[in-house]
Amino acid sequence: MLTVAPEVEVLARFGRALADPIRCRILLALRTAPAHPADLADELGVSRTRLSNHLACLRDCGLVVAVPEGRRTRYELADERLGHALDDLRNAVVAVETDRTCVAPDEKGCC
Fold it and tell me: Which parts of the sequence belong to the HTH arsR-type domain (predicted)?
């Protein structure tokens, strides 16, 4: 049975997913169209094992779903609104000052 997560949990899951560049690239690729893992691995230039680990994380975060297709599995965004949210985030990032860099949490305490 699926339940709707509280707002803070949803944002934390989305943030966790976006914290890794490979997961960001996967989400952006799936924003365009559903894909099979082998095709995604080739498109992104990562090993299938590494891609599989990131897809598992994105599934656990509730952002992607696996759709069985015979002997293969296709991945897609769990909700089409996630694609719109990614677009909104990409547009918002343009407003960030380009002369500043977000450092790792242990270096400065941000991010």
Answer: 3-100
Supply the pTM of this predicted model.
Answer: 0.79
DSSP 37-66: HHHHHHHHT--HHHHHHHHHHHHHTTSEEE
Distance of CA 37 to the CA centre of its chain: 14
Q: Measure Cα distances from 7 to 26, 40, 58, 70 in Å.
A: 23, 30, 18, 36
Q: What is the CATH number of the domain that holds 61?
A: 1.10.10.10
Task: For residue 24, tell me if it sits in a domain.
Answer: yes
Structure tokens at 56: 């598992």
Instruction: Tally the domains of the chain.
Output: 1
List the domain range (segments joined by +) for residue 45.
Answer: 8-88
Asked if the model's pLDDT at residue 58 lies above 70, the reply is yes
